[in-house]
Amino acid sequence: MSDARGDFRHGAELWNRGLYWEAHEAWEGPWRAAGRHTPGGRFFQGLILLAAAAVKHERGASGTARRLAARGARAIAGAHAAMPPFDAPAFAAAVERWVDGARPAPPIFDTFGPS
Question: What string of DSSP letters covers the chain?
């Protein structure tokens, strides 16, 4: 059984270290456990899409990164009831700005509230 809060924190720690694919993997378990069409599932799906956007951004696939980041932001926007105590929409928007080139560095989870 997946511990969603622990998996969230673990993924956030991986993200903060620049290990975006590994963060993606950490969030897969709680996404599946929550169910794809539940608020919790949409929340984790949004994080997974943001992590995939980060991977594509680092590989220079900017168009794909922007599309994935936008999809991730939409998923998170639809999951407000399931969010842990941090500003997930602001985090998603910061990822969108980063992959769009309007932000010099990726956002860090700690700046958006406790993880």
Answer: ---HHHHHHHHHHHHHTT-HHHHHHHHHHHHHHH-TTSHHHHHHHHHHHHHHHHHHHHTT-HHHHHHHHHHHHHHHHTTGGG--SS-HHHHHHHHHHHHTTSSSS---GGGGS--
Please say if the pLDDT value at position 86 is more than 90: no
Categorize the per-residue pLDDT at 98 as very low, low, confident or very high, splitting at 50, 70 and 90: very high
Give percent of the chain with pLDDT exceeding 90: 64
| Residue 17 CA: distances (Å) to CA of 39, 94, 106 | 27, 17, 10
Q: Which CATH number applies to 4-106?
A: 1.10.3450.10
Q: What are phi and psi of 83, to 5 degrees?
A: -75, 140
Rounded-to-integer distance, Cα 42 and Cα 30, Å: 11
Query: Is the separation of the CB atoms in 73 and 89 below 8 Å?
Result: yes
Please choose, from the candidates 68, 48, 46, the residue with its C-alpha nearest in 3D space to the C-alpha of residue 56.
Answer: 68
